[in-house]
Amino acid sequence: MTTVVTPRPSGPPDAPSARAGTPPAGRPPAPRTRSRLGARRRRNALLWALLLAGPNVLLILVFVYRPLLQSLYLSTLQWNLGSPSARFVGLGNYAEWFSAPTTGRIVTTTLVFTVATVGGAMVLGLGLALLLNRRLRGRGVARTVAFAPYVLSGFAVGILWLFMFDPRYGLVQELLGWVGLDSPAWYTARPWPLVMVIVVYLWKNLGYVALIYLAGLQAVPQDLRDAAALDGASSARALRSIVLPLLTPTTFFLLVTMMLSSLQSFDIIKAMTQGGPLGSTTTLMYSVYEESFVNGRAGYASAVATVLFLVLLAVTAVQMRYVQRKVHYA
Amino acid sequence: MSAATIDRTAAAPAGIPGRPPRRRSPHVGAYLTMAFATVVLGLPLVWLLLASLKTPEELYQVPLQWLPGSPSLDNYAQAAGAIPLGRLLANSIGLTVVGAGLKVALGLACAYALVFLDFPFKKLVFGLVIATLMIPPQITIIPNYTLVAGLGWLNTYQGILVPGLASAFGTFLFRQHFLTLPASILEAAELDGAGHWRKLWTFVVPMSTPTLAAVALVSVVTEWNDYLWPFLVVDHADKMTLPVGLTLLQNTDGMSNWGVLLAATVVVTLPILLVFLVLQRRLVAGLTAGAVSG
């Protein structure tokens, strides 16, 4: 912080040296002064940069990059949360994860959950967007209603839907009853708990997908559709040959975003099933929480977290590779 | 059979004389589908509100009773008796306001430096900030938890708040906006002798209100709904946020008392729902930012 008292270039201490540096030909010392002014400005800018960007960068270093590196280190330890002693096991935790009897089930559950939520949200979201892109009256209300769940607390939404799914007093069993169906044992019988969690995730995120698709649809030039219509193309044909291809960047963006958020989802599962029954709704993300904060195996959990991190990184890398040019970053 | 023509006429009142019904039918179908989708998507929230006003007898009736016989706030009173609901609400509001405010300030200041100042390693700093958008929070959770515990910050407001303050999203959005600001205005300000502080407050901030609103609203929503981190660092009821308090209520009252649990759920969701309904346009703009494809 000593730079605050930087002397002005015209100040007394500098004046003699400035004169001394001047060639004897008597040329004005303009270039020299300018570079001094530049130096002052540079120091001034550096000071302001420290002041303005410093706090945020410091927080990022301490609470994002430090833990990222430390987590990699922790994954090589056999260490329980809060325990004073730890033992170095190298890649032992990873080896254990790959051979653990539960790993296959967790990976399958994660895959089913991700494919069902991402796929479902994309298909239903596109359908909703196509519907709302027509000039129907009241579509603003429909859009608001569809998007509202996206802004709500995942945990609260989980509680609400747990009540909706109640096999005896819930609204879902009532509605199923209207079409002559018995309510499955949503809470207890596999695969229904997983189905339940997937439905809630879809309900919460559908509006987001629809809104992004809607923005993409509104960028599709109307004259292209008109031309297709004049050529006698059906609306289904126009959708397949014109609209969907033009929506490819949107589809890709949503695919990656939804995969990242689905792989990291926690609140809904915590509220509704706590990963159960018998681990049937335990995803990779949920098992990181469970291993570290329920079982206390922080070293092992860090290894699982690293596996999850690598999966997310792979998804992101694909995005960087193929979407960079289509999405504005700067 | 032109889809576009049908879309255009949609704005006109439904029954145009002489219009063959066959041409109107896809339209009726669209309206029916939209109505169905709206009801299906909106029903859970309506059901939540209705259920929170019902008595236990009405809640556990078969077949279901749709409307509460005489709406009562008993469930809310009982929830407030089981967990300190007023305190939780105050905690949530306080942490959301302070957290969102600090996030906006950090993002704004950082983006200003990245766009309007020249300093060494600027590209590196920018890369470092933006790359955090791709680092999933869960890999940082165990080390951050041990750090916060070591600092004695468990069950404190700063323990909930500080680790999540770093602003990557806000910095990114502000930077994008600042790059579009006309350089000439800032140069003129500089010639007038305005320092960075004055340039920031009298020129940059007033020209950035839409971005400010978007970042602030997105931060409000994420802070309010944040669950895993506050759930891990707090187990004293008087420091809990609303979603964490809901967990406490679920664990104590279980699913034996739906009315009480649902009343608390309304308290968690209603404030943010109101924010959404009032400021919908700006909030949606913020939440869908980043998807802008070119």
From TrEMBL, chain A:
Membrane topology, from the record: Multi-pass membrane protein
Organism this protein belongs to: Krasilnikoviella flava
Pfam families: BPD_transp_1
UniProt-listed GO biological process terms: transmembrane transport
Record keywords, A-Z: Cell membrane, Membrane, Transmembrane, Transmembrane helix, Transport
Family the entry assigns: Belongs to the binding-protein-dependent transport system permease family.
Protein name per its UniProtKB record: sn-glycerol 3-phosphate transport system permease protein
Segments for region (Disordered): 1-36
Gene Ontology CC terms, in alphabetical order: plasma membrane
TrEMBL record, chain B:
GO biological process, one term: transmembrane transport
Domain of life: Bacteria
Keywords: Cell membrane, Membrane, Transmembrane, Transmembrane helix, Transport
One Pfam short name: BPD_transp_1
Low complexity composition bias: residue spans: 1-17
UniProt entry tagged with the keyword Phosphoprotein: no
Transmembrane feature ranges: 28-50, 93-117, 124-145, 157-174, 200-221, 258-279
A cellular component term, taken from the record's GO annotations: plasma membrane
PANTHER family from the UniProt entry: ABC TRANSPORTER PERMEASE PROTEIN MG189-RELATED-RELATED, SN-GLYCEROL-3-PHOSPHATE TRANSPORT INTEGRAL MEMBRANE PROTEIN ABC TRANSPORTER UGPE-RELATED
Family, similarity comment: Belongs to the binding-protein-dependent transport system permease family.
Protein's name according to its UniProt entry: sn-glycerol 3-phosphate transport system permease protein
Organism: Krasilnikoviella flava
Lineage per the UniProt record: Bacteria, Bacillati, Actinomycetota, Actinomycetes, Micrococcales
